[in-house]
Amino acid sequence: MAKAFFRLQKFLRRTQFLLFFLTAAYLMAGSLLLLQRTRLVIQQGSRGTPANQALPVLEEMSRAGIIDPRALQSPRLPEGTDALQEPGLEQRHSPHWLTSRNSELRRLRRRWFQRLPSDQEPLQTAMQHTPEHQGTYMGCFTHDSRERTLKGAVFYDLRKMTVAHCQEACAERAYSYAGLAFGAECYCGNSLPAAAAKPEECNSECKGEKGSVCGGVNRLSVYGVEQLRAAARPRRNVIYRGCFRAPENLTDTFPASLIQPNLTVEMCSEFCSKKEFPLAVIRGQECHCGFPTGRFPLRDSTDRLRCHGANYCLVYQTPVQDTRCTDRKFLTTKSKVFVALSSFPGAGNTWARHLIEHATGYYTGSYYFDGALYNKGFKGEKDHWRSRRTICVKTHESGKTEIEMFDSAILLIRNPYKSLMAEFNRKYAGHLGYATDRNWKSKEWPDFVNGYASWWASHVLEWLKYGKRLLIVHYEDLKQSLIPKLKEMVEFLNVTVTEDRLLCVENNRDGNFKRSGAKQKNFEPFTQEMKDLINRYILTVDEALRGRNFSGLPREYVPR
């Protein structure tokens, strides 16, 4: 009996050990499976960088302050690659070294561009409702984007649009009506649409407010905002455009006119705003409203002190948006020529896209996806960059493989000093903000300059080397001579546009991503060592451009 009991006890001990072993093995297997799935998610989220899976995690740790962000400036090379050898000073700024360095850092740069915190809007777990809107609902109306009834300002917010937001935006610009369509588009105007639609056809939920209706597909939910205009804070004052020679026949040139004794700027601007014209033109007691046209292109202004008599007139910009060039669409057929809009970051690529879209009427695409740009109306952001449904594709890439995928390219170049500062501002404060003095005086800034200055140079050098057909555009020239340079770009894209449309683009030249003036700093951000480094890169790029029979860099680039 004792022997049988001993055997049973021995068996139970072995069983207990076996159960413990199986439980531990099960837990280890589950942990390994979880780690494998996590790694797969990271791989799927690392677009364009499958060889460096740890980089996204490192970036998040950097943002949280766990590791020094400067560690990201020197990416880990793949296994089997020799360590980087630091070249001598005489070799460090040669075209060969710059392109070699650019190739080694390309994966880091791609991750840097796509995962900047300033470009990513935080996801909200719950949609917050805006306060109850106060406008008067006028009904559901048909909406034709090509022949709009609400011809005033246009706004897009494909993530946060609400009824109240649209009403306030239109009221601030002194419009009488606000209309919403597609759940995310806001239109302003002073005349009700003529064609009413069935109420149930306005059925698109507002992107930023659950339970609220923001029009529908080709349908407008229209609200009267007259009662909001008095309380609304004016978005901007009337802008003085200058004194210009009056056209020969003002009545033929301008669609609306008013003769008023004791005429004031405010009276003329209000009259033209109600008529939905962006220009208010004053000559004596005459007020004329219209657009910039070939007859009146707003060029060659004169001194205001000389602006008297019947030959001159004062021109003001009203709060009304010039909408002759705001309609955009995707290409109806796939483009046969695959065109890049290439630039170093901070060189004005977004501004150039704004100009191209409004001049041609077609969306531009992007090698990346920027939610902030998509939410502001750059609908090509979500289109696959190789779809060929966009007029050109934004890219900051400069590797041989990436360049040779394009048939031609507009290469946008900007002063590296300005580009570096613009990109640093974007990194820390988004498209419209400014980095703080603390950011500029931190260790991040010199590390940023040391890395990005060479990228500025190598980006141009590699496109000159591998690009098949290039149009070189200098940001400064585009800014100073908008219409001539924009004509060159449009012709390069093989699109024909009217003079009036180009004048409309000039009238809307800033777009939604212009920083409000240059924020003055009470210190010089560039040390002499930085200037010496950047100036050597400038001379290298200037020599390379001239070697390819392009005009060299603008004189203001060199040296500082």
From TrEMBL:
Residues 72-96 are annotated as: Disordered. Keywords: Repeat. One of its GO terms (molecular function) is sulfotransferase activity. Belongs to the WSCD family. It holds the Pfam family Sulfotransfer_1. This is WSCD1 protein. It comes from the Eukaryota. Residues 134-226, 237-325 form the WSC domain. The gene is Wscd1.
